[in-house]
Amino acid sequence: MSLLRAAAWVLLKEMRTEWRTRELLTTTVVFVLMVVVLFSFTFDPTREESRRFSPGLLWLSFLFAGSLMLNPSFTREQANDTWQALRLAPVEPFAVLLGKIGANLLFLTLAEWLLLPVFGVLYDVSLLRVLGSLAGVLLLGTLGLCVVGTVFAAISAQARMRELLLPVLLLPALTPVLIAGVEATAGLLEREPRLDWTWVKILAGFDVVFLAASYLTSEYLAEE
Amino acid sequence: MRSPFLLPVAGLALVGAAAYAIFFVAPEEATMGAIQRIFYFHIASGWTAGVAFLLAFAANIAYLAGRAPKWDWLGVASVEVGLAFCTVVLITGPIWAKPVWGIWWTWDARLTSTLVLWLLYVSYLALRSLVEDPRRRAVACAVFGVFAFLDVPLVYFSIRIWRTQHPQPVIAGGEGSGLDPVMWQVTVLTMAALMGVMALLVWQRYRLEALRQQTAELALP
Amino acid sequence: MRDGMKNFESIFAAYMLGWGVLFLYQLSVGKRLRDAENEIQRLKEEKKKA
Fold it and tell me: Looking at the domain assignment, is residue C14 inside a domain?
């Protein structure tokens, strides 16, 4: 089975599993919403300055949500003992990893897009006119988050305290994504929207580097 | 048979030479005055930490390639020592910044990158302490170590570009600032001295890990 | 002149704390090495007796 087809198969399996209960998706959406609302209590979004902080708050909520919802992609396999089945399947380990990255990307992106209108209302920012560029920036950033996050989730699945370990491993590593994402989004949300390509290149570079690294290390992750 | 004291003594001599150079050979800096002498220790520690992390990266790859335990031992040894030198950078930076800028932390690009680096490699140690099985631990740490090191340039550049867009005081002379030739030589000497210290520390930590393996084997019935 | 004295304290603090970190790490590793070596001696002797 070709790599992409196998990955798509894994992705569909993840989607089917999630569709049965939808618990991961709903909990993630609620969590992101709560974080954004709570942030607005600390910064009082009616003031001009707090509108300056809003891109940062947006990305922080994505980062926190991501580091919490990435664990289940592997712990669910362990709980149901389906991990062996995946390991023994006649597909490349990278296909399994890619499928899981794709699933996490899909779920997190869904949560992000459900949040955006709420964010626009709470912080009085006009998102419609920059929707295309914003979608691109969000996609590149979330992809980076999911690539590194899924690999780290696989690593920490074998460790104690994995729910706390994953954010500990992930958050420093995602510094470039956070900085680039926030700066790019801030540029788009200004009165005169502009897309700063430097940050887009950094996000894209991050994605490429870590996709390659995931490919090269996937066989070692599959050993457990 | 070479004396086991030869290398430590040579290392000590190098450190002594560097200390002498820093305080008696290097000229006084024009604007900041004497406090600039912290620079040599600060910058040299930064480079030494970087070399230690590079060594860890090489060890991680070597482990994944061949699974020889000695690479895992070298990996953790280099990370710990690199982290120690990182800590030195994070301590000397603010001590330098306070008299010069009046604040402890200026979000200077290099110092901020070092902080993120410190967090990243501390999480390496967290991972290491939380995986029980030695073989799984070695694989987990090796993969994480590879990712961490690949992240380093991305962290550095994103923080640097971020800081140029929102300028703040720079601690150790900006990227483009030139260095008086004598200062440059003193800096290189200090780097050599600290790398010698690093090598000695890594060697001992490596031995400790090797002995732990031996202990585990002996403890088996 | 007073400025120079204040700076001297900072330089002193920086070098002392910096070397302190490295020294403490050395002590920590040294102690654990000795403990490990003693443990190995102990285990070897136990094996001889057994």
Answer: no
> Whole domain around residue B125: which residue ranges?
34-171+181-210
Q: Tell me what pLDDT residue C3 has.
A: 59
Total domain count for chain B? 1
For residue C42, the enclosing domain spans 22-50
Judged by a CB distance cut-off of 8 A, whether residue B214 touches chain C is yes
Q: Is B25 helix (H, G, I), strand (E, B) or coil?
A: helix
- C12 assigned to some structural domain: no
Helix axes A93-123, A23-43, angle to 10 degrees: 40
Percentage of chain B beyond pLDDT 90 is: 59
Put simply, the chain C residues between 1 and 50 with a CB less than 8 A from any chain B CB are 3-4, 6-8, 10-11, 13-15, 17-18, 21-22, 25-26, 29-30, 32-33, 36-37, 39-40, 43-44, 47
Task: Please give the single-letter amino acid code of residue A203.
Answer: L
Is the ipTM higher than 0.90? The answer is: yes
The model's pLDDT over B18-36, given as tens digits with 9 standing for 90+, comes to: 888 888 888 877 777 778 8
Number of domains in chain C: 1
Asked whether residue B122 is assigned to any structural domain, the reply reads yes
Encode pLDDT of A179-198 as tens digits.
999 999 999 988 888 899 99
Residue of B36, B15, B19, B20 whose CA lies nearest to B180: B36
